[in-house]
Amino acid sequence: MVLPYAAEVISRLCVLAAYTCD
Length: 22
Hints:
Helices cover about 85% and strands about 0% of the residues. It starts with a helix and ends with a helix. By secondary structure, it is mainly α. It contains 1 helix and no strands.
């Protein structure tokens, strides 16, 4: 359903945030 897709998007956003913030 939507949960796997949302989890992947959130994880990618977290990775991007880690790269930009760090």
